[in-house]
Design a protein that fits this description.
This protein is an alpha/beta fold. Helix content is about 15%, strand content about 35%. It is globular. The protein starts with 7 loop residues before the first helix and ends in a 45-residue tail after the last helix.
Length: about 190
């Protein structure tokens, strides 16, 4: 079932199609949220922004927050049907935008808390595994084929400066050689 499930309607439809499966979240290569996880809250966040090109943007995000207790309580993660009962409880109080962008918020002692996209759902035996993909930054203006705004002199902030205006800098890879942080290496 490789695909992108970027809106709430599509995300929920996949869950609804697999109520008997166990719901697992893979947040990194061979790393899964502990089976004791809880869905602690589902947030709906309306976002209104102005990008660097001066365009007003708005969208809604649906953020499913997972919490991993310090002490593992369960050997098996929750069933999809239990997750859907939590969704139903939330939707009684907060109607969720079906076109809202879905993000899963998770972190633990070895993985900084972040919001990730559900990149794919995979049925693996009795499990429905949600593979989480990292969020990335982007320049919306450049994505539209426009500039990224201008300064008082009319220069665009994302233009590359003429190489004659700035001195060339050489970067040194400090981890490439074993002699790097020795007194004779020149890095200190």
């Amino acid at each position: 079932m490789e695909n992108s499930f970027n809106n709430w309607q599509a995300f929920k439809a996949v869950l609804t199609a697999h109520p008997q499966h166990t719901l697992q979240f893979q947040y990194a290569q061979d790393r899964y949220v502990d089976a004791s996880y809880h869905i602690t809250e589902i947030k709906q966040a309306p976002i209104i922004s102005v990008d660097c090109g001066g365009k007003l943007n708005s969208w809604t995000e649906i953020i499913v927050q997972l919490w991993e207790p310090k002490i593992s309580e369960n050997r098996q993660a929750m069933k999809v049907s239990k997750a859907l009962s939590i969704v139903s409880l939330v939707e009684k109080s907060l109607p969720l935008n079906p076109l809202g962008i879905v993000k899963i918020e998770f972190g633990n002692s070895s993985f900084d808390t972040r919001q990730m996209y559900p990149g794919a759902f995979n049925v693996e035996g009795e499990n429905l595994v949600v593979n989480l993909m990292p969020d990335v930054t982007q320049c919306k203006a450049i994505g539209r084929g426009q500039s990224c705004g201008t300064d008082d002199n009319g220069a665009e902030c994302c233009d590359l400066a003429d190489s004659k205006e700035k001195p060339e800098k050489t970067l040194k890879n400090l981890v490439a050689t074993a002699t790097c942080c020795t007194p004779e290496s020149g890095c200190c």
